[in-house]
Specification:
By secondary structure, the protein is an alpha+beta fold. Among the domains are: about 170 residues, no CATH class; about 30 residues; about 80 residues, no CATH class; about 110 residues, Elongation Factor Tu (Ef-tu), domain 3. The strands form seven sheets. Strands 6, 7, 20, 21, 22, 23 and 24 form a seven-stranded mixed beta sheet that branches. The longest helix has 28 residues. The protein is elongated and about 185 Å long.
């Protein structure tokens, strides 16, 4: 007896099961199913298995006792047995019929198509259903096309038995297509959101109104006298007083120059000088000055342009003179050490040259010097007093416009209009580095500046100009510009009490009140023609251009941010 028994695992896929059936060498295949065989709980998989068995010309029997599997197998037309000893049959219980009725229309159409194809193409084999699976053998299989037993399609017969009547079809309850339901469930809110978003966009975002108003403005020349005071805290339009501010700028002006002075920094010559005081009170009376004279260290002694200085203090007693009063007897000599004021060999003097010395500040004192020696030459470039003075004069003669500009910008940032005529730059003394007499190839002269400028409150000046320009305006007109940025201020009086009185000259512009927000508020919700007529009727308006966008917009939106109003001056 030739048959095949195949055990199925829960892990087997439908493709694995069909491969096992098709590869079996026996024409009778019994599939022993495990409990809760999930892969064959699907009617689709059960049909796939049935089709695979038919295509391989296998008699398939499922061995299971689970009612759910038996129902699905019966719906697919596959024979089922409770055990290998039980007789196989296609389940036809009421539960099976009920299972059949629960298939969707789509599955039913697929079953009918499969059954038609099976009837036309597959060869079927009838089994003796009165015998158990174990009693079946290959001998029980009827040869295809035999005259003794014509071909029967058990599945077709069973399906015909199970096929419900037209009356039953009409009573079948269709299973909802949940995929279609989910798609609709997603699409409907999406479409609603798109529609609402599009409506909001077209109604509240896209509509735009552009209004361009051309006006005829009038110029008003203002000339007045204003006083500013650094102690004033508020504007007094009656007395024409505005708050003021004094700004100070401390800075250093510098100039670099090349020193031209020369100095011999060699060793200084030195020696001694003998001094005599030949002073008398009255030569005719032979009265001597009995007072001694003390010379401090550093006292200058000069001879033929050479200057020496004492290196120690010396006290000199007056000498006597001849009886005839003609000569000083030089009987009180005072010897003192000296050195040359500057280094150099030129100060090396010999006594044979008969050098006599005079003392600065003491005309009565005379002296004779010893040999002066030890001086050497070392000439270097130093900063001379003339170098430093000339560089300082160049700074003073230079422009101080940069300081004026700095103070002007500073006052503007603080909200004050600079009074340029109040600018003053106060320079200090010039200093040079290196200092005068010091060696250097380059030097810098510096002058410390203390610059000042006074400003008048810009807001206060605007209030005064607005008051003067707006005296005779209609209620629909206003002062558009005060011209303060180009105004001229000329100081008349600047007393020491902190007040500055100045002439203020400017040109103010008056015209229609240019309030874009008010215009937008007035035309919101209006049609284009109505809005144009309204604006055109305002005093001072010469022309108006209005554009509504996009094309479907017929009334101005109520959101003022979507209405753009601009003004163009058509001249004074």
């Amino acid at each position: 007896m030739k048959k095949d028994t195949i055990y199925i695992d829960n892990d087997d896929e439908i493709t694995s099961i069909t491969d096992k059936v098709q590869s079996s060498e026996s024409s009778i295949v019994a599939l022993i199913l495990p409990k809760r065989c999930t892969v064959l709980q699907s009617s689709i998989n059960m049909k796939i298995l049935n089709r695979a068995a038919k295509s391989a010309k296998k008699n398939l029997v499922l061995v299971t006792s689970e009612q759910s599997l038996m129902a699905v197998a019966g719906a697919a037309g596959i024979m089922v047995a409770n055990s290998l000893e039980a007789r196989p049959s296609i389940p036809t219980t009421q539960s099976t019929k009920k299972q059949t009725e629960e298939f969707s229309d789509e599955d039913e159409q697929e079953d009918e198509t499969d059954e038609d194809e099976s009837n036309d193409e597959d060869d079927n084999i009838d089994l003796d259903k009165t015998r158990s699976i174990g009693e079946l053998s290959d001998d029980d299989v009827i040869t295809l096309g035999s005259e003794d037993e014509p071909f029967k399609d058990d599945e077709t017969n069973e399906d015909e038995d199970l096929k419900p009547s037209k009356k039953e079809k009409s009573k079948k309850v269709k299973v909802p297509n949940f995929d279609s339901f989910r798609i609709k469930l997603f699409l409907i809110p999406t479409v609603l959101i798109v529609l609402i978003g599009g409506w909001y966009l077209m109604t509240y975002v896209l509509p735009k109104v552009t209004v361009k108003i051309t006006t005829q403005n009038v110029s008003n020349v203002i000339n007045t006298v204003v006083t500013t005071n650094v102690k004033q805290t508020s504007v007094d339009t009656d007395k024409m007083i505005v708050p003021g501010k004094l700004d100070t700028l401390k800075t250093n002006a510098t100039k670099t120059f090349t020193p031209t002075g020369q100095q011999n920094q060699g060793n200084k010559a030195s020696g001694t000088v003998t001094l005599y005081d030949c002073s008398v009170v009255d030569r005719t009376a032979f009265l001597f000055n009995g007072t001694t004279i003390t010379l401090s260290t550093g006292t200058q002694l000069s001879s033929r342009g050479f200057i020496f200085v004492t290196t120690a203090p010396i006290t000199i007693t007056p000498s006597k003179i001849a009886l005839d009063g003609s000569n000083c007897l030089k009987d009180q000599p005072a010897k003192v050490a000296v050195e040359a004021q500057n280094g150099g060999t030129s100060y090396n003097l010999a006594t044979t040259s008969n050098y006599s010395y005079s003392v600065t500040g003491f005309s009565s004192i005379i002296g004779n010097g010893s040999d002066m020696g030890g001086g050497t030459d070392k000439n270097v470039t130093v900063v001379s007093q003339d170098d430093c003075t000339n560089a300082g004069n160049a700074i003073l003669n230079g422009s101080s416009d940069s300081y004026k500009t700095q103070l002007q910008n500073q006052l503007n940032k603080e909200g004050f209009t600079p009074l340029l005529d109040s600018f003053a730059a106060n320079p200090g003394a010039v200093t040079c580095s290196p200092a005068v007499g010091e060696q250097g190839s380059t030097a810098t002269a510096t002058i410390a500046y203390n610059s000042v400028m006074t400003g008048a409150s810009t807001d206060g000046l605007n209030q005064i100009i607005t008051m003067l320009a707006g005296k005779n305006l209609a209620s629909t007109q206003s002062v558009l510009t005060t011209g303060i940025s180009s105004a001229a201020e000329t100081i008349k009086d600047q007393p020491s009490n902190g007040n500055i009185t100045f002439n203020l000259s400017t040109t103010a512009t008056t015209g229609i009140k240019q309030n874009p927000q008010a215009i937008a508020q007035s035309i919101k919700g209006m049609k284009k023609g109505d809005a144009q007529n309204y604006i055109q009727g305002l005093p001072g308006v010469t022309s108006v251009t209005i554009n509504y966008n996009p094309f479907y917009v017929t009334t101005a939106p109520k959101n003022l941010k979507q209405i753009n109003v601009s003004f163009v001056n058509n001249g004074n």
